[in-house]
Design brief:
Layout (H helix, E strand, L loop, with lengths): L42 H19 L5 E14 L4 E13 L2 E9 L7 E3 L5 E4 L2 E4 L1 H18 L6 E8 L6 E3 L7 E3 L3 H11 L6 H11 L5 H16 L21
Parallel strand pairs: 3-7, 4-8, 7-9
Antiparallel strand pairs: 1-2, 2-3, 4-5, 5-6
Length: about 260
Amino acid sequence: MRRRKRKVIVEAYDLSRHPYLDGNPKLEEIDPMQRGFHREVNRQKTDFGAEAERRITEVLAGIPGGRVLSDVYFLTGRYSEELELYYSMQIDDVFINKSGAFVIEVKNYGGSEVVIKGCADACNWKKNGKGMPNGSAQNRNHGAFVKQLFDFLGLDVPVYTITVICGVRRDGILVQEFIDDNLIPEEELVDRISYLGKRSMASVDVDAVCAAIESWKCIPSEERRRLHIRMCRALENNSTGVPKRCKGDKKCFVAFRK
């Protein structure tokens, strides 16, 4: 019998349970720097992706009339008792101008011969036949969280999601997509932001929106990165609990808020 493919569901986030609000459980008390908590992925692969993200951030920073916030971590308000962690998300870039907020996910799949295929709502795509995460589906949840955060704060700001595929030609991106996914090669990024902006009737206060994001995002740090990776790997592997290989006292670290 053919196995059914898992689909990605866009989540609804209960921000009233967020740890930044009074009366809710506070932040994680766990030491992500302890021995055994985190195993680093292939550094060459990590650097390969980081270089593309830096390149896209520079492009966004050069667009007149906007501001870019990069490597933005949010806690979602959902807490896992098993992992002893809040669910978190990492957004590569949020670009804000008078037309709205553009939530950018960067994927660097590199190589002129690369072909990417897949369904719009599947958990994974195929890169030359090998499985890889569905970047557009991931970014839909990022965009949904940012929109729900703005609504929670009473900010009327249009939110657009753009997934940028670096190192792959347009004719190598053979992925089904929803109309609002904006799945593009990197050379189309500036034109796509311009196109979406022209459709917007908004007049956004850029400074106010940036201040709202700054007040709710986590302080970027190696500790936060490790906690986020731990959560992502646990979800991917359907595992729970702190790794057994940890040697130290797990309840000895309180982080990460301005």
